[in-house]
Amino acid sequence: MIYKTIKSEHLHEEIGFHRPDDLHKQQITLDAPAINVMTDLKRVSLVTTGLRESIDTAHEKMRNRGVRMLVVINGHDAIVGIITARDILGEKPVKFATENNVKHGDITVKDIMNSQIEVFSIAEIAKAKVGDVVHTLKEVHRQHGIVVDNQGPNNEKTVRGIISLSQIARQLGKKVDALDIKEMVNVILS
User: Fold this and answer.
1) CATH of 27-189, one of 3.30.420.110, 3.10.580.10, 3.40.1190.20, 3.90.1570.10
2) pTM of the model
3) Which of 70, 101, 145, 190 is the most buried (most CB within 10 A)?
4) pLDDT in tens, 117-168
5) 8 A C-beta contact, residue 50 and residue 147
6) Do 47 and 67 form a contact (C-beta atoms < 8 A)?
């Protein structure tokens, strides 16, 4: 096979560069399409933690990555739960340590994670408004929503994105410091 030289030129001036679209800096309203507040895992890497990781290490990972939720995976990279900053900083660790007579530093992600995960289909999110998502997360008492689609030869359910009340608040231009979901929703809706 014979290959040819591609025409090129010297760069003689300062120029800008392309960046991935950052929808999360985009201001939204409660009537905006819900898809505008979803962190799309086709564009952003999922932040994960292992079952046996300490909750302190998991919390540090959250802080370093600027997130308030980690997806928990097992040794086969299958999703088995989620853990939130609210789980780590709330009553769960104290209750677990007391009931199991262990030190805080010995508590693992597996000990306090949420293994019951409710998911939304990408088709439903594509039809919904931001306000619908806020209302639904309030109803199911969750700070985060996991969005799934079906792909691959067997049309398998796959996590496609994450929706966060904190992210929605930021995109609405509202400051939310609360860990309580009801308080977060009240700030978002105000």
Assistant:
1) 3.10.580.10
2) 0.78
3) 70
4) 878 999 999 999 999 999 999 898 888 899 999 886 788 888 999 998 888 9
5) no
6) yes
